[in-house]
Design a protein that fits this description.
6-stranded mixed sheet, 16 helices, 29 strands, 8-stranded antiparallel sheet, Ribosomal Protein S5, domain 2, alpha+beta, 5 domains
Length: 721
């Protein structure tokens, strides 16, 4: 039966085969009061994509687009594991990251100056457990926007790709993802890439390029299906106005700066080249000179004061916008025509580097990494495995994060005032990227049984702070004595497109980011890439251009890595004296119950009496941690005694628990008693046991034998007490 649509619109769908499953997009079934809504079904995953567009533009200097990804626990057939909160609340970091993943390929596809408020919400209503739903949500967002009558230059679609046994595959299961050495998300428009994000296990650059080409080819059915839907709906684009700079003012400012940006050598742009602080000082001074000149020329009034006041109120903001635009144009011109960057560097040159380690006396590991005016301090803290973060999301049940990277960048790092609050989407995203960069080289919990928290405190910003966070984190981890498999460095690559000619920049700084077309972050070891993140301002780039950027990044990464290793060549052999010491034991899983005891009685007794922390994994891995080596050893000995099997010929220290006429029963191991016959108590003949032993006595005995019924025979003879 057809769903009744109160608006009178006809419900229909389009479908196609996409990577081995049916992909279906349905319209007009739900979301009657949205500007546009779609239901996207892939396998058993169903995602609602909804768009609402404001009727009038808002007065502000940026595009008010918001894209949210909503996880619903019911979609996975689960209720939140929290004892106190059962409904969805603040999005988990994972949901925030997926929201950013969807936002990044979509935002650049709107025209500059568009000021209608656009809200996109993707809601996962049903989740197929055999693959992740994020790229399905991206497709839902794109489809809804495509049919909303807004100037969106889509469609876009994404694929999450892995590599198993040398072959690429999309929509991997959890088991396949664990086997894969690559986790790559590629978003595509037409035949060009608009966004890349990846984690990789030291994968070579050429494999990444091959994966991108594979994605572009295999994503086409999803793009064609959206176009088919758009053609069927025959959407009329809503009227809109762009908030663009005044052309007369723009030309006037460009002409003024063309003269005033010339240096003493008479060459264009040399007046505003140099280090960042000098450039800003000169640029601000020139802007003030421009204001003074144009205020007297264009301001209305009879006196200079009246002219300046009128200029400030009526024209100053637009002239300042045009001035910033002129600076961006000069940055691009200098790179394209002169091959020179704002600070005088060559296109493939890294800013000056300096680093330190062990800069904070009481922490477990620390570093200070400086690249140009960008500076990152990193602090590493080690703790027992029990301190791992519990992850409870729609996709993950009873998951844990043993390694966490947190990123903080207050407003003072850019020389501004601002509110200090909880981390935003940018901070969460940058921290996750740096975390992903180091994950492939961390030791296993079996080899290094610690929970690790790495915190980057940005001290100064001038571009590429996430890559500074990666480098500083690597140094701090090595300073903390974390036995990394390989050191990791990172670099941000930029791009200036001159028509079809790409000019790739190594080690992107702010001025180039603002004026440029791409921000491509690459991290890795000497053997290969560990993480990628690429955003752009243009409407897509060919894989050939991205290949050039990735290959050029290798030289930059190695230069930075050599610098880092000159500061600290390898992880320290010893942990900080302030870090907890952790020892590990492997026991048979069937012995875990004896360690825990009834109702946790035994494990609680061990921790309270020794002061050590004891963590027990289902695999049988026992970790004992603390700051006092003697207390740790006491706990180890106690646990060993609980799981130890009796060994014939071994001497035990036991306690007399029962006395009989014929001998005594001695407890030699937890729950294990042996029989000490009266004849085996002493070399001398005893008339009764009490002549030598009493209840509660602690004595040394040797285990002589174990009969076929498991009964233990003990002896004190020839055992030194």
């Amino acid at each position: 039966m057809e769903i009744i649509n109160p608006t009178g619109k006809h419900t229909f769908s389009v479908s196609t085969d996409f990577c081995g499953r049916e992909l279906k997009i349905e319209v007009n079934r739900v979301g009657f009061r949205t500007t546009s809504s779609v239901l996207v079904t892939y396998g058993d995953t169903v995602v609602l994509g909804s768009v609402v567009v404001s009727e009038k533009p808002v007065v502000q200097d940026f595009f008010p687009l918001s894209i949210d990804y909503e996880e619903k626990f019911y979609a996975a057939g689960k209720i939140s594991g929290s004892k106190f909160i059962k409904r969805e609340g603040k999005p988990a970091d994972e949901a925030v990251l997926i929201g950013r993943l969807i936002d990044r390929p979509i935002r650049p596809l709107f025209p500059k100056g568009y000021r209608q408020e656009v809200q996109v919400v993707t809601t996962v209503l049903s989740m197929d457990p055999s693959f992740r739903p994020d790229v399905v949500a991206m497709l839902a967002a794109s489809s809804a926007l495509l049919n909303a009558g807004v100037p969106f230059d889509g469609p876009v679609a994404g694929l999450r790709i892995g590599r198993i046994n040398g072959k690429f595959k999309a929509f991997l299961s959890k088991e396949e993802r664990e086997q894969s050495d690559l986790d790559l998300v590629v978003a595509v428009k037409d035949q060009k890439v608009v966004m890349v994000e990846a984690g990789a296990n030291e994968v070579p650059e050429n494999v990444i390029i091959e994966a991108m080409r594979w994605a572009v080819e295999n994503i086409q059915p999803a793009l064609n299906l959206q176009k088919q839907l758009r053609d069927k709906l025959e959407i009329t684009e809503k009227a809109y106005e762009l908030s663009l700079p005044d052309q007369v003012i723009t030309e006037k400012v460009e002409a003024w700066t063309l003269v005033h940006f010339k240096g003493e050598d008479g060459k264009t742009g040399t007046n505003i080249r140099g280090n960042v602080l000098d450039r800003k000082r000169i640029a601000d001074t020139l802007r003030d000179e421009m204001d003074a000149e144009f205020a007297l020329e264009l301001g209305e009034g009879d006196t200079p004061e009246e002219k300046i006041a009128d200029y400030d109120a009526r024209l100053k903001a637009e002239f300042h916008n045009a001035y910033e635009l002129a600076i961006h144009h000069e940055v691009r011109r200098a790179i394209v025509e002169d091959g020179v960057r704002p600070d005088g560097r060559k296109l493939n040159e890294v800013r000056p580097l300096s680093s330190q380690v062990s800069i904070l006396p009481r922490v477990h590991g620390s570093s200070l990494f400086t690249r140009g005016l960008t500076q990152a301090m990193n602090i590493v803290t080690l703790a027992p495995l029990s301190y791992a973060q519990v992850v409870d999301t729609m996709e993950v049940t009873d998951g844990e994060r043993r390694y966490m990277h947190h990123y903080n960048a207050p407003s003072y790092t850019v020389g501004e005032t601002g509110r200090i609050g909880s981390p935003g989407r940018r901070e969460i995203g940058h921290g996750y990227l740096a975390e992903r960069a180091l994950l492939p080289v961390l030791p296993s919990k079996e080899d290094f049984p610690y929970t690790i928290r790495s915190v980057t405190e940005i001290m100064s910003q001038n571009g590429s702070t996430s890559m500074a966070a990666t480098c500083s984190s690597c140094l701090a981890l090595m300073d903390a004595g974390v036995p990394l498999k390989s050191p990791v460095s990172g670099v941000a690559m930029g791009l200036i497109l001159d028509g079809e000619t790409p000019h790739v920049l190594t080690d992107l700084m702010d001025a180039e980011d603002f004026a440029g077309d791409m921000d491509f972050k690459v991290t890795g070891t000497k053997r290969g890439i560990t993480a990628l993140q690429m955003d752009m301002k243009v409407h897509g780039l060919s894989v050939d251009i991205l290949e050039k950027a990735i290959n050029q990044s290798h030289e930059g990464r190695m230069f930075i890595l050599d610098h880092m290793l000159s500061v600290l060549s390898a992880p320290r052999a010893e942990l900080s004296p302030y870090a907890p010491r952790i020892e590990k034991l492997m026991v048979s899983p069937d012995k875990i119950g004896a360690i825990i005891g009834k109702g946790g009685e035994m494990i609680n007794k061990i921790t309270s009496e020794t002061g050590a922390e004891v963590d027990i994994d289902d695999s049988g891995l026992i970790t004992i941690s603390g700051t006092d080596p003697e207390k740790i050893q006491h706990a180890i000995d106690w646990i060993k005694s609980l799981v130890e099997e009796p060994e014939v010929g071994k001497i035990y220290k036991g306690k007399v628990v029962s006395i009989k006429d014929f001998g005594a029963f001695i407890n030699i191991l937890p729950g294990i008693d042996g029989m000490l016959h009266i004849s085996q108590i002493s070399e001398k003949r005893l008339d009764k046991v009490e002549d030598a032993l009493h209840l509660g006595d602690v004595i040394k005995v040797r285990l002589e034998s174990i009969d076929d019924k498991g009964r233990l025979s003990l002896s004190m003879r020839h055992v030194e007490q």
